[in-house]
Amino acid sequence: MRLKFTLLALCLFLSSCSVKLSYQFLDEALGWQLGRYVDLNSQQNKQAKAFIDEFHSWHRQTQLPLYADYLEQLKHGLNDQQVTAAYLHKESDVMQDMLDASMLRLLPGLTDVAMGLSDEQVNEVVEKLTKERKEYKEDYVDDSPEDISKRRLRDLKRYFEPFFGRFSKEQKQLFADWEAELEPYESYMLVQQLNWQKAFLQAMSLRSDRDALQASLKQLMLYRTDNWDAELQRRLDYNQEMTFEMLAKLFNSRSEKQRQRLARKFDQYAKDLRELAADK
């Protein structure tokens, strides 16, 4: 089973001030993400830049037209029918498949970079992962339930506000009811993060065997929940169901003005993506 965060991820990306401007910095953003976890030497930086540039060119030419077509389809699906949780679940699968295609395209280049990491650099990555896990614990496990709730609601509203504008009283209540129904899962997720880190270390021990390393990295990148703790899986399944049901109600509660706003947004994004794809 796959986690369904892609609807929120799509909204977060599209709600940026400019899709064109954001996309122009994709290669820098990918390089920055690598740099967050490990300091690469000059040769490793050249190697990383080469595969990121190749990925950016492939993504621009092959994936952006698909995204544009999909946004136009999604616009009609959200505006021309009664939205259901099942529909949103299905569309989330489609988005996840598109994301997986990009992750698979990155995989060979990331494998090559990983093969060249020293033991010291691997330890550096582990230290960064440990720090992130500590920050996650402070923000989502140790923090008060009231503050966690406020943060969750704030983030959700921020994701969807560009597509809705001002929320109605009914819509704000939907958010509040949704948040109150969610089951806490963060402490279980903290354990899963540690398990992921252990799997990463195991993968890095295979750096002398490219095929084995790439297979292990693929499992880490295309992360599924099948082997997760049963209680964590149950809570995530429940929260996912609650989220899709809330989102269906949210879309069905829109005013005509809000429907038109979403249509304009999606049309502009599709136009921007097609122009980016045509820009060599």
Descriptive overview:
Mean pLDDT is 87; it is low at 1-17. This protein is mainly alpha-helical. The protein contains twelve helices and no strands. Helix 1 (6-14) crosses helix 7 and helix 5 runs antiparallel to helix 10 (210-221). 18% of the residues are buried.
The run of helices and strands is HHHHHHHHHHHH
Indicate the radius of gyration in whole angstroms. Answer: 20 Å
Largest sheet entry: none
Mean pLDDT: 87
End-to-end CA span: 38 Å
Q: Give the fraction of residues assigned to helices.
A: over 70%
Looking at the structure, what is the overall shape?
globular
Number of helices: 12
**Low-confidence parts:** 1-17
Structure summary, number of beta strands: 0
Structural class by sheet pairing and helices? mainly alpha
Strand content: under 5%
List the helices and strands and how they pair.
Blueprint: H1 6-14, H2 19-24, H3 26-37, H4 42-79, H5 85-115, H6 119-140, H7 145-164, H8 169-181, H9 186-204, H10 210-221, H11 230-252, H12 256-278
Helix pairs in contact: 1-7, 3-4, 4-5, 4-12, 5-10, 5-11, 6-9, 7-8, 8-11, 9-10
